[in-house]
Amino acid sequence: MLMAFVGRLAQSWRDLVAEFMDPYRPELHYMRGPGPRWRERHPEG
């Protein structure tokens, strides 16, 4: 029983560390800025 608890605790710790160390950051890939339609409506001047 104690070993099962320790095993679950260790797995939870590994999951938590993996979540914080995950290099995937979708906000860096999908936020590309305004497109051509926006530039048509907001000319530089």
- The helix tally amounts to 3
Structure class: mainly alpha
Rounded to an integer in angstroms, the radius of gyration calculated over CA atoms is 23 Å
Sheet having the most strands: none
Mean pLDDT level: 86
Number of strands: 0
Describe this structure in a few short sentences.
This protein has helices at 2-20, 26-30, 36-41. The protein has 45 residues and is an all-alpha fold. The radius of gyration is 23 Å and the shape is rod-shaped.
Give a structural overview.
- The protein has 45 residues and is an all-alpha fold.
- It is 67% helix and 0% strand.
- The protein has three helices and no strands.
- The protein has helices spanning 2-20, 26-30, 36-41.
- The radius of gyration is 23 Å and the shape is rod-shaped.
- The model has no long low-confidence stretch (mean pLDDT 86).
Write the layout of secondary structure elements.
Blueprint: H1 2-20, H2 26-30, H3 36-41
Primary descriptors:
45 residues; mainly alpha; rod-shaped
